[in-house]
Write a structure and sequence with these properties.
Blueprint: E1 17-18, E2 29-31, E3 41-45, H1 47-53, H2 63-68, E4 81-83, E5 86-89, E6 92-96, E7 102-110, E8 113-120, E9 135-136, H3 137-152, E10 159-171, E11 175-185, H4 191-199, H5 203-217, H6 231-253, E12 255-256, E13 278-279, H7 303-322, H8 325-351, H9 360-373, H10 378-391, H11 395-398, H12 404-421, H13 427-433, H14 441-452, H15 457-467
Antiparallel strand pairs: 1-7, 2-4, 3-10, 5-6, 7-8, 8-11, 9-11, 10-11, 12-13
Helix pairs in contact: 3-14, 3-15, 4-5, 4-7, 6-7, 6-8, 7-8, 8-13, 9-12, 10-13, 14-15
The structure holds adenosine monophosphate and magnesium ion.
């Protein structure tokens, strides 16, 4: 069904909205209209996602869509709402949070299944606390580009359909301008939604929420298989497994989330809430990408344990439904088994190893140590190694290491693998697992600076590159190169 529509007049493009989240009832949300933004304009649209959703490409780009996705009109049938959640921020219980600047527009039937659309930056809600309900152009561009980049890398994530901007001033460290990102996901439910009802002792709502999530998103947990019929323990295990696979992908690709609070953890195991994230330039396990994170709680290497900590909080929230704490612990244990297995699988693929073998972990561990000691650029290393395996010329990789002897020793053990373990190195597998293009901070920054001057061409160029990150894209060599010196001084905080 293509929602063909020429009726810029009525402007709804025949979208048929449903809002099953709203069927949970008023304890879960507040109905809220978006606050209009003056003189909205398009910053970027995501035609590839529009096609996946079977949305009309001409409509996405029309005046009607511009106003709808800026929050100036409400599409017929959509009943926007802000959901309530709580959460732990930086390890401390923060109490009630909620959609302080986001609104769920509703749900569309798409070829990808039911998908929710959400505006981020659409104005005040009852959960805005001290905030202004807005998002700035800078952070909206980062979220838009990164969520699509992650998707193209095969990493589960919320998606982004478009960004609209407005001259409306927004005060952050300086005065910036407002923007709205339209996000798309099967659900925006977070760990914090469960913590909210558990903390308040609202056990009926807690159960209702858990049943809703199981029925819609984890039907395999309905019978509580593996847990004597305890569906809530099965849910906790399934979420732990998806989350383990997610964080393994982050670690393998060199992605730092930056704010892994429990309210930024998707119950579907998606990457959500792109704030001060960063793809590593030089490999540094201790790297902290969030300048507001003074203790390094969310440093790169802390992500797996901190994500487990978050799962533990989810386990505590589900405890009243699960019953026996020992059962919840069993469900959580799956993270500890699955994370290393998933991480090793990803790293093996990056090394071109098609099968597992004893000693792979030592090989990978020693490589990562060597890369950290030599501050080797992470994406460039992997891409050069890929070409080296294909060509047999390892000199360009060697050039990345100050400690040549250390590299030579590692390379010797790597080259011995095929003979020792009977595994050929698969350069094609490496090409599909070592992206040439990632959204490094400085690339985002260049696109933002131009956009703040009214030039969106760099946003669009990055969109195209990051949609196909494993391709060569001749003419864009600089986008695959080393970061400039000034990149080290980019400061990304929670301010967005
Ligand atoms: P974050 O750190 O972006 O995950 O946000 C944490 C909480 O603060 C969430 O409840 C957000 O909705 C809320 N929040 C963040 N920025 C704003 C803002 N500018 N206005 C209102 N609420 C906000
Ligand atoms: Mg958040």
């Amino acid at each position: 069904m293509n929602l063909s529509c020429n009726d810029g007049e009525s402007g709804d493009c025949g979208l048929r909205w449903n809002n099953r989240f709203a069927s949970l009832g008023p304890a879960f949300f507040t109905r809220q209209l978006p606050q209009p933004l003056p003189a909205p304009y398009w910053v970027a649209t995501n035609q590839a996602l529009a096609r996946e959703l079977d949305l009309n490409a001409d409509w996405l780009g029309s005046e009607a869509a511009l106003h709808a996705f800026s929050g100036n009109t409400v599409l017929p049938g959509s009943e926007p709402l802000a959901s309530v959640y709580s959460g732990h921020q930086f390890g401390v219980w923060a109490g009630q949070l909620g959609d302080g600047r986001a609104l769920l527009l509703g749900e569309l039937q798409t070829p990808q299944g039911p998908m929710e659309l959400q505006l981020k930056g659409s104005g005040l809600t009852p959960y805005s606390r001290m905030g202004d309900g807005r998002a700035v152009l800078r952070s909206s561009i980062r979220e838009f580009l990164c969520s699509e980049a992650m998707h193209a890398l095969g990493i589960p994530t919320t998606r982004a359909l478009c960004i609209t901007g407005s001259p409306e001033p927004v005060r952050r460290e300086s005065i910036e301008t407002a923007a709205v990102v339209t996000r798309v996901a099967p659900s925006f439910i977070r760990f914090g939604h469960f913590e909210h009802f558990a903390a308040r002792g609202q056990l009926d709502e807690l159960r209702q929420l858990a049943d809703y999530v199981i029925e819609r998103h984890y039907p395999e947990c309905l019978e509580g298989a593996g847990f004597d019929g305890n569906r809530y323990a099965a849910l906790l295990q399934a979420v732990s497994e998806r989350t383990a696979a997610l964080v393994a992908q982050w670690q393998a690709v060199g992605f730092c989330h930056g704010v892994l609070n429990t309210d930024n953890m998707s119950i579907l195991g998606l990457t959500i809430d792109y704030g001060p994230f960063q793809f590593l330039d030089a490999f540094d396990p201790d790297h902290i990408c969030n300048h507001s994170d003074h203790q390094g709680r969310y440093a790169f290497k802390q992500q797996p344990p901190v994500v487990y900590w978050n799962l533990y909080r989810l386990g505590q929230a589900l405890q009243p439904l699960i019953g026996d704490p020992a059962i919840a612990m069993v469900a959580l244990e799956s993270f500890k088994a699955l994370f290393p297995a998933e991480f090793m699988a990803r790293m093996r693929a990056k090394l071109g190893l098609t099968t597992a073998h004893d000693g792979d972990d030592t090989l990978i561990d020693s490589l990562l140590h060597l890369m950290a000691d030599n501050a080797v650029d992470y994406p460039i290393f992997w891409r050069r190694l890929t070409h080296a395996v294909a060509s047999g010329d390892f000199e360009p990789v060697r050039d990345l290491f100050a400690d040549r002897a250390g590299w030579d020793r590692w390379l010797l053990s790597f080259k011995e693998l095929p003979a020792l373990t009977g595994r050929a190195l698969d350069a094609n597998l490496m090409l599909k697992n070592n992206p040439r293009y990632v959204l490094r901070n400085h690339l985002g920054e260049q696109a933002i600076r131009a956009a703040q001057e009214g030039n969106y061409s760099e946003v669009h160029a990055l969109q195209l590159l990051l949609e196909r990150p494993f391709d060569e894209h001749p003419g864009f060599e600089a986008h695959a190169g080393f970061p400039p010196d000034w990149a080290r001084h980019i400061s990304i905080s929670c301010s967005s």
